[in-house]
Amino acid sequence: MIVVGGGLMGMLSARELALSGVRVALFERRAMGQESSWAGGGILSPLYPWRYPAAVNDLARWSQGAYPELLARLHRETGIDPEYVPSGLLMLDADQQAAGREWARAYPTPLRLLDAAELRVEEPELAPDWRQGCLFPELGQVRNPRLAAAVRADLLRLGVSLHEQTPVESLLLRAGRVRGVRAGGRDWHVPQVVLAGGAWSAGLLDASLSTPPVRPVRGQMMLYRIAAGRIRHIVLHGGHYVIPRRDGHLLVGSTLEEVGFDKQVTDEARAELTAWAGELFPFLRGESPVKHWAGLRPGSPQGIPCIAEHPEVTGLFINAGHYRNGVVMGPASARLLADLMLGRKPILDPAPFHLFEPVSA
Questions:
Q1: Which H or E element spans position 344?
Q2: Which residue among 147, 177, 239, 338 is the one 20 to 30 A from 43 at the CA level?
Q3: Is-contact 193 180, C-beta < 8 A?
Q4: What distance in Å separates the CA atoms of residue 342 and residue 150, rounded to the nearest whole number?
Q5: Is 331:12 a contact under the CB 8 Å cutoff?
Q6: Distances in Å between the alpha carbon of 144 and those of 35, 39, 151, 152, 221?
Q7: Predicted structure pTM score
Q8: Per DSSP, which regions of 23-66 are E strands?
Q9: Full DSSP string of 226-289
Q10: What's the pLDDT tens digit per position in 102-118?
């Protein structure tokens, strides 16, 4: 079996299949985990989850239950710590608090409503004009580059054949079935192929075939270096967020830009993010970012990924389109994909994830 795409989604898919006894080869055009898997923030929750349909929340919820064991096992088996931090998520959007409370009841999740004095206790450096917030104390984060490195190491331990710097040139199709891929100047013949190439997933499909509705959405991020513990929680407001890492690194993100496959950073985004961060935490106005980068998220309608067999090509499966929530939906997406490929009872109803755009007339 072949998996195309060495981001977190492709690697978790390969791992799930390998754990089920399947021989897997994974092909990646660059090094493993270097696109959106590296560029994102590693928050183990959708941002404003009440804005997403049940399909997204169900994948996230299943993954949140699976993550403690997965992270512990990866650390134990590979020696690489994904640096899980139960930092909690503090939302400052006053107009979202009612929806947040309703969601916390529907998906039982601890929630604390904070007044101005309680905000000062939880985040002493927060600007004094913030008067209320919602704290989800059990939501956490992982350091996504370290998570990707741990999964890659575990794939090697499990015997998965990794082909990095080996772009897949085309799919091998015959009589409505997938027969393998062409990569590295040769044909690789297998009866099942998974496309898990993130924003690039639809690129290998011929124009005569339906495609998953996945597009690139640029997100720019910045990194500060501050004293560890100075900011204690993931803090969310107006669609932007700060993520404090264990060692004092602080992520600030992110933008949402429809610019195709352009990964350039811009002065406009830097100004926007630095101004926003300074409004929340005034001490950051005196700090300079140490890094600024961009990644391409695999955007999809309503953020629902496509996890399904292709409707016109037997044996060709898609696992792509996770938009901003690839890390939190990753374990469930990989398990659901493996269930479908191996004929097992699926962990979730697969119907909402069978998403394909018909061939244009």
A1: none
A2: 338
A3: yes
A4: 25
A5: yes
A6: 11, 8, 10, 12, 14
A7: 0.96
A8: 25-27
A9: --TTSS-SEEEETTEEEEE-TTSEEEEE---B--TT-----HHHHHHHHHHHHHH-GGGGG---
A10: 999 999 999 999 999 99
User: Which domains, from first to last, does the chain contain?
Assistant: 2-79+144-213+302-353 (3.50.50.60), 89-138+215-299 (3.30.9.10)
User: What does each C-alpha distance from 45 to 59, 134, 234 come to in angstroms?
Assistant: 10, 15, 11
Report how many helices (DSSP H) and strands (DSSP E) the chain contains, helices first: 8, 17
The first and second tokens of residue 298, run together, are 């695999």
User: pLDDT digit string (tens) for 272-289?
Assistant: 999 999 999 999 999 999
- Asked whether the beta carbons of 161 and 114 are under 8 A apart, the reply is no
CA atoms of 162 and 164, how far apart (whole Å): 6
Picking from 205, 214, 215, 213, the residue whose alpha carbon sits closest to that of residue 313 is: 205
Q: Amino acid identity of 356? A: F
Give residue 361's pLDDT.
45
Distance CA 127, CA 154 (A): 43
Residue 5 near residue 199, CB atoms below 8 Å: no
